[in-house]
Amino acid sequence: DADVTQTPRNRITKTGKRIMLECSQTKGHDRMYWYRQDPGLGLRLIYYSFDVKDINKGEISDGYSVSRQAQAKFSLSLESAIPNQTALYFCATSDIAGASGDTQYFGPGTRLTVL
Amino acid sequence: SQKIEQNSEALNIQEGKTATLTCNYTNYSPAYLQWYRQDPGRGPVFLLLIRENEKEKRKERLKVTFDTTLKQSLFHITASQPADSATYLCALLLGETDKLIFGTGTRLQVFP
User: What is the nearest CA distance from B59 to chain A, expressed in angstroms?
Assistant: First the structure.
């Protein structure tokens, strides 16, 4: 089984709808991240969490919210989806920084289309 | 402003040759620099990490160099194979924030 899983893998929705993307991990890592990837813009950090009680905004958090339900689960919500949120979304985990250099392990991605 | 630059144009090389990809950055002082591989429609996969006090790192056919004076990392794949065709991302870990900042990636195409 994959270490980092994301559901759904693909989603098409309409403007104004609420969407939740879910991420689960079995790596036992404390740190979890949500990124979006757009052609030509690379990976951009939306939110990150260094432990269950810690939530931090990334560079593009507007229009998104997150919930860290447990060490293994980190959900991303779009409260009212808009077309420019169409992108590929990745969840990632990492162990604490130090010897690992915060190496990140990515899920397979969710392709979200907002019409 | 702070930025990470990778060649946006695809790199096309012949099988067996050495592929060299470049990552340049400005106005950052990274503690680590990492390289990831990404295949179409899939998540990035970690390849190599190099620390600020290291000049070079090797892993099998892969070699990474890190020049903090030039603010540049080079990523080499020797004896390249068609299976090496993918997009390669560099990422900087900023020690003061513990966050990774990714470049936009360079697509490598190895043809037989």
Answer: 16
